[in-house]
Amino acid sequence: MNILITGGTGFIGKQIAIKILELGTISFDGQAAQKIDKVILFDAFAGEELPQDPKIQVITGDITDKSLVEKITENIDVVWHLAAVVSSAAEADFDLGMNVNLYGLLTLLEALRKHGSKPRVIFASGCAVFGGELPDVVTDQTVVTPKSSYGMQKAIGELLVSDYSRKGFIDGRVLRLPTIVVRPGKPNKAASTFFSSIIREPLKGESAICPVQADTPVFITSPRRCVESMIQAATLSPNQLADNRIIPLPGLTVTVQQMLDALEKVAGKSAVDLVQWQEDKTIQRIVQSWPVQVKAEYAESLGFKADENFESIIQAHIEDTQK
Amino acid sequence: MNILITGGTGFIGKQIAIKILELGTISFDGQAAQKIDKVILFDAFAGEELPQDPKIQVITGDITDKSLVEKITENIDVVWHLAAVVSSAAEADFDLGMNVNLYGLLTLLEALRKHGSKPRVIFASGCAVFGGELPDVVTDQTVVTPKSSYGMQKAIGELLVSDYSRKGFIDGRVLRLPTIVVRPGKPNKAASTFFSSIIREPLKGESAICPVQADTPVFITSPRRCVESMIQAATLSPNQLADNRIIPLPGLTVTVQQMLDALEKVAGKSAVDLVQWQEDKTIQRIVQSWPVQVKAEYAESLGFKADENFESIIQAHIEDTQK
Predict the structure, then answer these.
(1) Bridge-partner residues for A48, per DSSP?
(2) CATH number of the domain that residue B316 is part of
């Protein structure tokens, strides 16, 4: 079985690669497990600290390069499409966001359609498809109302993956992800990046800035749970999905204060004291426009689960970064 | 004031042109009325029975032809974007539907963005953005779930027009239209085309086939009401629209039987007898997947109205075709 991960040198891409190579096989729909022969990590950037495995092939290039994308999608059985320009960057540079998030996806879908092998495609969407006035509890039936270009591009991606699946060009699955916390590595250009920084940096003895009020809630998933969900999405039978390919994932709702309380339990008051409070009204406004309470009935019926508590997320982060 | 109507040689395009030239001016947001200087009818087809007026300029071409679209959008103040490959055709030829309905819209939006004059853009969407399991009453908050490529392309168009408006590239307004009945002229490739045929043909003394059961309901707007709504959408102030550019229109819900009862009142039993019943399960299934009861609160708050009854729609059709 051959795997393609776009955005593959990013941290979730690398984790999926490591995890499926640890597993060694993938089993579709309860059928016989199939050996993994090759994992292509495709990305615009070469990346750092890439997993070392002879089955891994790193290819850098442009996701809108039609002939290149046709080449890397040859004989591929599963695609995780994670390549994306993140929210703030897509808002600051509209063309860049459109190129990667919309035209890149279209290039990928057309290449897969041309090959005709109907691979499983797992597309990473997110809660940025929502914005503005939201109901107290967001459900599978909540209408998407993106208020950012990134959210618009993800919402379009959901529609494209659904219709390409309905037409039988691919066998797609859209995961609508909560905010991922604690992300390892460095801050990125997502408005949500500080949710990771305020845990990650203090654990290293470094200070971090929190731009929102302590009672600000956020709907999250851990990197480990995200990777598990990503792999689970590939193993689901198309029969389980019927005609609904969009799976809003469950997650954990915590306030910044609850996150810091958990940090104190794990790493002591000195860690929490490294968090500096500098309110940024723009970030506060963006964060408040996201769903906080999400009822993910469809995903739960398919077996997807939320993290149990924030303390265990911190513990897992410590384990993973000490590897 | 310069006007561009794409799909301009189609029947709604021609009617908008006739109506605004009759009016002679357009008044934005209650401000001073502005004289109409030029109306470009742009279409892939030359069309027939075009309105004769020195202000009208007919241009045929491809909506994805970037340099041509940049040329026809120069100094344009209002665009009605009606150009589309209809439902059955977009389902039968996926590439054709994607080219016109998605890439054509993108070409238009990018040309308008490049010119930088932020024209008003009225985009014709439709109830095909819905499909599958629907609530009994579809509202402004009902999640879109297209089950056709046409519906997917229209749903994407809604998102694009909304975000291009939010970014200030255009001043867009999306009208989500009910099925238009009675369409003049010949049947087209839309699954809904028979709803017009079963009225239009008998009025000419010709037979028509009804492929669905008599108790099948449909949610409709008349051509006249559609054209009025299209023009009204152009005159709304952006302040009235705030951050919601998607306007699901109100309409009239009637069954096929009620339509034929109205036909009998207007044209007698001999007209109704010209309708032949030949059930087509595919069409029945498609039609039943559309919304029937729609609560259009947002549109009504903006002053949009449904037709009053089906008899008056038939009367208007007779008047309009005898002109």
Answers:
(1) none
(2) 3.90.25.10
| B204 and B112 in a common domain | no
Cβ-defined contact of B159 to A149 (cutoff 8 Å): no
User: Do residues A73 and A115 make contact, with C-beta atoms less than 8 angstroms apart?
Assistant: yes
| B307 in Cβ contact with B251 (< 8 Å) | yes
Cα–Cα distance between B167 and A1 in angstroms, integer?
Answer: 43
Whether B116 maps to a domain, the answer reads: yes
In angstroms, the CA A161 to CA B146 distance is: 12
> A8 and A34 in one domain?
yes
- The answer to whether residue B300 sits within a structural domain is no
DSSP code at position B214: T
Structural domain count, chain A: 2
In the prediction, which pLDDT does B3 show? 98
Is B298 marked active-site? Answer: no
Q: What is the pLDDT of residue B136?
A: 94
Mean pLDDT of A119-131: 96
Higher pLDDT, A70 or B30: A70
Q: Are residues B110 and B202 in the same domain?
A: no
Domain assignment present for A13: yes
Residue (of A230, A272, A283, A319) closest to A13 by Cα position: A230
Please indicate, yes or no, whether the overall pTM of this predicted structure exceeds 0.95.
yes
In a domain, B29, yes or no: yes
Element (H, E) at B23: helix B11-23
Residues β-bridged to residue A180? A221
Do A12 and A5 touch, CB atoms closer than 8 A? no
Q: What is the pLDDT of residue B286?
A: 83
Residue found by looking up tokens 């994932």 in the block: A249
Express as a percent the part of chain A with pLDDT over 90. 90
Q: Is the pLDDT of residue A126 over 90?
A: yes
Dump pLDDT digits (tens) for B202-212: 999 999 999 99
Q: How far is B239 from chain A (nearest CA, A)?
A: 16
Cα gap A107→A85, rounded to integer Å: 15
Asked whether the beta carbons of A258 and A292 are under 8 A apart, the reply is no
B210: domain range?
193-218+252-292+307-322
Q: Report the alpha-carbon distance of residue A245 to residue A309 in Å, rounded.
A: 28
- What average pLDDT score do residues B279-294 get? 90
pLDDT band (50, 70, 90) for residue B236: very high
Q: What is the DSSP letter of A124?
A: E
Contact check, Cβ <8 Å, B152/A143: no
Tokens of B279: 């059930």
pLDDT-derived band at B188 (thresholds 50, 70, 90) equals confident
Residues 152-191, chain A, touching B (beta carbon < 8 A): 152, 155-156, 159-160, 162-163, 166-167
A79 shares its domain with A157: yes
